[in-house]
């Protein structure tokens, strides 16, 4: 005799219900310690994220409203043995999060104030500010700053892992532009951290930041550029697929000057796969841009949408890429060089993957930045390990809604990554932490910085309370949460 299905599924749910019932009463006792603007979601909260694949499943979302709320929430979570994850833009795609059961997401988005100093040399923003907010404030004040190329990305989320921007050739990476942070440490204390105050921690947070604390606000370098000069020439050049080898060779051989960057995409339009490059030139006229990218134009694009654009609109082309929701198990890898045959193989993989219904938003992308400025800064200045080795970043990005496709998506994107690694021209596999999948070894992510990072971690977070983003140490995640009675 078989048990009725309803009874069976109730039995399966029982442990979850019992467990949830034992969670600490955040909405009650934590709420009292927080500022009046805070809300705590506890009834099956959903966190809006760029990708639902591998997303955290918290029991509570604390929408903090002041820097001290972050400190109080971290202190509370540590005292109750519950895990927590700070969320800024929610664009992080790595599947390293183990947030579940009684765990907490600290939603930083209300900490999004941005101010530019009177002398236009620094910009200060809250730990929850996203790129569009930073760029809009910078443009309005007549400055440029290092900020990611897509509007939805958390500025600190990007900076704490490295921080690539198309302005990197002029100003370096995000980690090179950070001046000071207010940060909640493993004891739940809010401190100002600078190069002078704590050199080892300062080195560590610029490359592996989420392992060391939650940044509640940051001051970064700003560079005065009057609005009328604050423009870039950029746009899409579409090529027929028979040009892949020639295009990849041309990009590989292109010497990027400080104002230049170039991206390559395999993406669909009206259901058909396309090959698109996105050249970028800060402060250039169309004529200057076309001259600097003459080797790309020589391959005769079939469409050209390039134009001179005010800097507060340069990221608009990435807004479709910023669309939240859906499943996007992305796999990224760094390269010293581009191999034409590899990119032909990836095209074939991509076209085959697109035969799955509902996958047309899937994209392959390659990004190349001018690295001269970043390489003029010592590799030992920050824990970010790849400034002297990676010239190109490749990412396979399957995009769909049906979770039943997860397995096939993983094997497609992993195959692309294997192809990239096979001809990457690097001595050892290396991935930018913010483009990595989450299944890599720590050596691939942290490179030569790994052993010093582990030592700094042991000194600053011995209990491993910051354990959700390519964690440098193991442990704590399996501990049972302390109940209110504990
Ligand atoms: C559409 C898109 C475009 C992108 N473009 C770029 C780009 O141009 N340049 C680039 O370098 N990267 C880029 N990335 C990668 C991006 O840097 C990472 O996805 C990054 O992790 C996103 O940060 P977030 O705050 O949006 O995400 P979240 O998921 O909120 O955070 C990611 C991780 O950072 C931690 N974190 C975030 N904020 C803080 C904080 N204030 N203090 C401590 N830890 C924090 C989180 O706890 C989490 O572990 C892009 C990603 C996407 C999806």
Mean pLDDT: 93
Please work out how many helical segments DSSP would assign.
Answer: 16
**What is the class of the largest domain in the CATH system?**
Alpha Beta
Ligands (ions, cofactors included) = flavin-adenine dinucleotide
The helix/strand class is alpha+beta
Percentage of β-strand residues:
15-25%
Shape: globular
- Taking the alpha carbons of the first and last residues, their distance comes to 43 Å
Named CATH architecture of the largest domain: 3-Layer(aba) Sandwich
User: What percent of the residues sit in helical stretches (DSSP H or I)?
Assistant: 25-40%
Count the beta strands: 20
What radius of gyration results from the CA coordinates? Answer: 23 Å
Reported by name, the CATH topology of the largest domain is Vanillyl-alcohol Oxidase, Chain A, domain 3
Largest sheet: 9 strands, antiparallel
Unreliable spans are 1-20
Signal peptide: 1-20
Cofactor: FAD
Organism: Eremomyces bilateralis CBS 781.70
GO molecular function: FAD binding; oxidoreductase activity
Explain this structure:
The protein has helices at 5-21, 26-30, 67-79, 131-141, 155-159, 168-171, 174-177, 199-208, 244-253, 286-292, 294-297, 340-353, 372-375, 406-422, 442-446, 450-460; strands at 39-41, 60-63, 84-87, 104-107, 114-116, 122-126, 143-144, 178-184, 190-193, 214-221, 223-224, 231-234, 237-239, 260-269, 272-282, 303-304, 307-310, 331-335, 363-369, 392-397. The protein is of the alpha+beta class and 486 residues long. The chain has 3 domains: 22-107, Uridine Diphospho-n-acetylenolpyruvylglucosamine Reductase, domain 2, CATH 3.30.43; 114-226, Uridine Diphospho-n-acetylenolpyruvylglucosamine Reductase, domain 3 (2-Layer Sandwich), CATH 3.30.465; 230-444, Vanillyl-alcohol Oxidase, Chain A, domain 3 (3-Layer(aba) Sandwich), CATH 3.40.462.20. Strands 12, 13, 14, 15, 16, 17, 18, 19 and 20 form a 9-stranded antiparallel β-sheet that branches. A 5-stranded antiparallel β-sheet has the order 5-6-10-8-9. Strand 14 (260-269) and strand 15 form a beta hairpin. Helix 12 packs antiparallel against helix 14 (406-422). Residues 54-225 form the FAD-binding PCMH-type domain. This is FAD binding domain-containing protein. InterPro entries: BBE (IPR012951), FAD-bd_PCMH (IPR016166), FAD-bd_PCMH-like_sf (IPR036318), FAD-bd_PCMH_sub1 (IPR016167), FAD-bd_PCMH_sub2 (IPR016169), FAD-linked_Oxidoreductase (IPR050416), Oxid_FAD_bind_N (IPR006094). Keywords: FAD, Flavoprotein, Oxidoreductase, Signal.
